Amino acid sequence: GCLHRVIDPRTRINTHIYMASPLTSADDEALIEEILARLTLREKLGQMMQPDWRTFRSAPKLSEAGAAVLPAWAGSAVKRALNAPLTDEQCDRSVGRHCLGSVLGGGGACPTPNEPLAWQAQAAAMQRAALRASSGLPLLVCNDSVHGQANLRDATLFPHHIGQGCMRDEGLVEELGALAARESAACGINWIFSPCAAVALDLRWGRTYESFSEDPALCGRLSAAEVRGIQRCGLPMAACAKHWVADGGTALGTGKFDMGGIGKAVKSFGLDQGNADCDDAELRATHVAPYLPALAEGVLTVMVSYSSLNGVKCHASRALVTGLLKEELGFRGVVGSEERSARPSFLLLHSLRSSSGVVVSDYNAVQQCGGSYSAAVCKVVNAGVDIVMTAGGLFGDLTWRRQLEELEAAVGRGDVPAERVDDAVRRVLRVKVACGLLRRAAASTPAGGDAAAAASRCPLFDAAVPPMGDAACVGCEAHRAAARRAVAKSCVLLVNEGGILPLPAGEGGRPAAELLVTGIAADSLGRQCGGWSLEWQGCEGNAFTTGTTIADAIRAVQPGARLVSGRAAGRQATDGRTAHGHARTRTRTHTQAYARAHAHAHARAHAHARARGHSHAATCAPGPAPRLRLTTCLPQDVDGLAWLLAHAPLSFPQAPSAGAASRPVAVVVTGEAPYAEGFGDVEELRLPPADVRAAVALADAGWAVVLLLVTGRPLLLPPPLLSRVAAVLVAWLPGTEGDGVADVLFGRAPATGRLSFSWPHAMDQAAAAARLKGPLFPFGHGLQTRAVG
Predict the structure, then answer these.
(1) Over the stretch 138-149, which tens digit does the pLDDT of each residue have?
(2) Contacts from 230-233 at CB under 8 Å and sequence distance 24+?
(3) Which of 15-19, 166-170, 542-546, 711-715 has the least mean pLDDT?
């Protein structure tokens, strides 16, 4: 009989709210076994391969772009070629011919134009190719929607996990997961690689911000909440707990950045993809524990870590993947491991709902596990990995088609047992059934007819292009409002001398005191969003998406606030508007104090610029309150204010004596540049020195300095700085909605966030164990304020 029946792609199937329990029924299991029995070996192996869809085009490889992995390549011809629209022929030649079971777009992958309808058209083209294939099985389409649909321009980007951990609000984390899933579904995506259940134990790790907390219990609760949100969003969607296991516990100096070609162009790193040395008790109590609530919640998939445990690559460890995860912890569909670890006393197995259980490799991770690809893929698949995620020729010469051939040859030789292949494909089919992508076709047996004969003629399952979400939800006001609430709730107030926060908003838009806003992160959506935002390594500036910078949000409350640019003052300024319509004043206006400081330094700056081959000129705009506009200035890599502070004697006004209410306030917004994974591994947890100097100078001149940190991890607060500032507010990586930060600054929302990571005194407290002995601010610290008005 026919294997499947293709339904009109316009028919929407299974749009019910995702089931509370992912358990498949007996009929589902029977359907899975019938499909499995009819698949050829090549069709089965296609279900186990997950290539990057950018390899479906005839386009240059990323490796041909030199430093293509960095944000600088974002506008390159290489990226434009890789993101050109996919044709039906390209989809048939790739998805259809090889019966692929899933595809992904890595960081920065997007169709052209980068808008929801183009995403939907591309996903539909790949799904139609899958349905035309001999297997006829619909695709799982995957994306790194780790804080929103982060590859989509104008999507709502929520606070990264480190900020969500400070909210201590499982309901809001669940809501954010659902909203991220809906904006992803609007792009044809049905599998999200989130949440990250890692417990980050060293703040120098470049993935610290992907972790909810240093506390395993908090990580577990919030991971489970995000799984609920994603998998009950109302559309077919699978979550993925990652990275199994102990990726946050690697030792400094053991990291080696290697992603099958990417790492050849960059340095070796200290922590990422390194080795965690820990005994069984520590492994279970610290690193396995956060996965238990997600497994109990029925997370459909788990991703394995690049890292190693006690010298063995996690991807190649049968004891970790099959023995511990699949068998002992009940990630269902297991073929029993010969070596079972003792069950932990804290684990109540009866409380865990069995999960459908797909285990997926990380991007190009297989190549790290053997001298040849053939040997490596045998190790990984035999360890229990069900789906091989691969760049597949995007980097280097090892295409995914060749990888498929190598896996087929390994099965033919008996190096990978046929039973292991069936186990993997059975799990993939379970996820598709659980997501509503597969259902048994309704049998049509005429009255009095032969039921057996009718069944043989009946299609085995219905298949259709899966339902997609509503494109209108992307970046909508309701989603942005939820993100704004989350931003406000994630902010942590470390210091608040004299109750300076919340700041008085004044009346009629007039500030209650002179307000200056400066710092490298004040007017930068790129720094607010961090890594995994339109590009793998994130973006700089404001042009890459729609949102509200912190500076714009402050000026929406106090239009009279003056912005001293923390970015290069010589850049051409343009006027624009944020998503909420706030006027974005991009001319570089400054206070009278800054004008006087510039006057003192003008001659020296002119000489410095002329010596370096740059021009320097300044004009003062007319009016009762002189403002300085820098028309041409210093090199573009030099911060205008910070350079003046470093090279000129400044004369800031002293605080008026009328009282605290009229004391001028300077909000210095500083923090880290965007990064992701090993590119974010650092030796020192330090603030930008230029912003530190600016904050100290402003405080010494009588300004009440509010230090606002935009960062993916706690950074050291030098004593000369900490002793001078009036308040320290941590906004983490808030995403696109900077209004939430202003809400806390001006009391529109209370400060309620509490640290999910303890804060170090010095670099010798970068590791969590060292912070047990008196951190600067302990885990759970967070001063509270009340909303006003």
Answers:
(1) 999 999 999 999
(2) 230/177, 230/178, 230/180, 230/181, 230/192, 230/194, 231/18, 231/22, 231/181, 231/297, 231/298, 231/299, 231/300, 232/17, 232/18, 232/20, 232/178, 233/18, 233/177, 233/178, 233/181, 233/182, 233/185
(3) 15-19
